[in-house]
Amino acid sequence: MPLRLGFTGDVMLGRVVNDRQRRRSVDAVWGTVLERLRGLDGLVINLECCLSTRGQQWQRTYRPFHFRADPDWAIPALEHAGVDVCTLANNHILDYEEVALRDTLEALDEAGIARTGAGETIDEALEPAVRTIGDTDTSDDDLEIAVIGLTDNTPEYAADEESPGTGWIEIDADDAEMRERVRETLERARETNPDLLVASLHWGPNMVTEPPESFQAFGRWLIEEGVDIVHGHSAHVFQAIEVHEGRPIIYDAGDFVDDYRVDPELRNDRSFLFVLSVTPDGDPLELRLHPTEIEDCAVDEASSEAAEWARERMRNLSAPFGTEFDRDGDALVLSLES
């Protein structure tokens, strides 16, 4: 039986979201999407904030926004949604400096939520998140996944051999040194013998609707290096999906939940829950896109109007890559079977 692994765009639980959650139920942030999330076999998110009540706002370089959420509600919320992996390689994990990063790592570890992309050192930041999903009581019906997290955002947040931070790279598929570092990171993930290898990338600037050629080349290169799905995020708006060698590249998954101002044209409040169906051996079968919409600092199933807008926009963005979708109810469906 196929297993279903969900991927989301940015999950930002700080600022107004954090304030609202202090006065409503733990599950409220997931809105009407909660049951769909809980029905998945696994779930990977980009956690776009630190989980801490400690620390001071980063002042060493100019940072206009600082995001953190109280782990007392945020961890139960992640657990209730069934989050298996949080990628932390992004431009907000050090917003409240090292103490808040360490609180985040500790809170996720204590909850048994796998994480990747940030750590006490660069070695830890590049360590893959490894998780078994599916019916773990039956070895024939589970899936071993390994997720690596990388970012080209905010180089001042980069970890090194002695300092905590993110798994930072400068994305250039022609850079031999960068390629070697990424190959080593992928090899560490492959050493865990996963059925499915995921590269989760927080790349590029905000409010950009198309991936640059360098990202396209890098995404294809990752697939050629053995990655089964590229999970991109950072732009706050969803971008195209490309299929390369039978594997999907989600160039940007957009925003899943936050408190951001909505651009009336780019509609950063609209995106999808991306659900990859795979065999127990890790062979991708299809990618299903369920339209979502952010309202009142929570994520909901998109209204009919919003869903139609999102489907049409995704079709138009993906068409230049030769990507064609079918339709099943509100969802777009991309077949990956050869």
Shape annotation: globular
Q: Measured on Cα atoms, how large is the radius of gyration?
A: 18 Å
Relative strand content: 25-35%
Give the class-level CATH name: Alpha Beta
CATH superfamily: Metallo-dependent phosphatases
Known CATH architecture: 4-Layer Sandwich
Which residue ranges are poorly predicted, with pLDDT under 50 across at least 5 consecutive positions? Answer: none
Summarize the structure in words.
The two termini are 18 Å apart. The protein is an alpha/beta fold and 338 residues long. The strands form four sheets. Strands 1, 2, 5, 6, 15, 16, 17, 18, 19 and 20 form a ten-stranded mixed sheet that branches. Strands 8-9-11-12-14-13 form a six-stranded mixed sheet. It has a single domain, classed as Purple Acid Phosphatase, chain A, domain 2 (4-Layer Sandwich). The protein is 25% helix and 30% strand. This is CapA family protein. Residues 4-260 form the Capsule synthesis protein CapA domain. It comes from Haloarchaeobius amylolyticus. Belongs to the CapA family. InterPro entries: Capsule_synth_CapA, CW_Biosynth-Accessory, Metallo-depent_PP-like.
